[in-house]
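I hope you will forgive my troubling you with a question about protein structure. The matter concerns a single protein, recorded as an amino acid sequence and a row of backbone structure tokens. Please examine both parts with care and let me know of anything in them that strikes you as inconsistent. Here, with my thanks, is the record as I have it:
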Amino acid sequence: MQITYFDIETGPLSDTELAALVPRFDPTEVKTGNIKDPEKVAAKIAEAELGHRRDFLEKAALDPLTGRVMAIGLFDQGNGFRCLGAGLTEAELLSRFWAECADPSGVFHRLVGFNVFLFDLPFLVRRSWKWGVPLPRGLRNGRYWHSSILDLRDWWQMGDRQAKGSLDSLARHFGVGKKMGNGKDFAMLWNSDRAAAIAYLRNDVCLTVRVAQAMGVAEG
């Protein structure tokens, strides 16, 4: 069975789209303490409103209601690393990814990722619903994902949902590398330095491969 390692990177929707989605700011909830000066009160409220919008924008990429899939990194022995995203609409990107998950007869490949059960796959599915992109048959079986999909974080936890361990911390733990930056900066990097963004994604996928090998849960 072919093993395909994958990782997704997300970014916020456009400014125009987000403008209509920012939650309402309630100035009456701002605590002004003993401040009596109207100008200082107004300044504190204005600062709180800016913080309210900033917090929303910083988290937008992590929510499929306010974010989108920008790029997907894939690796398998036959094709090596490849990055999907450049020159594609989000719907096209999603279609290409799902086509990579199974062969033409519908047989799933072995998919391996990190924290994909809680983030990558739900995000991909919800954005696919948004654009009406068909999902592979059997992707979900009731509450569970297809048995060919392996989540390294889920495997590391072994049923203990309190067990800590990020991709970076596990890669360092096994001595197989470390992350090159922070995913929250990916959208900006993708738009300003495409080569650097792809290098960041490539490193994340390579770390996924190496951690899987160190844990002995996948070949490749």
The chain has a mean pLDDT of 89. Residues 38-59 form the longest helix (22 residues). Residues 22-61 form one domain.
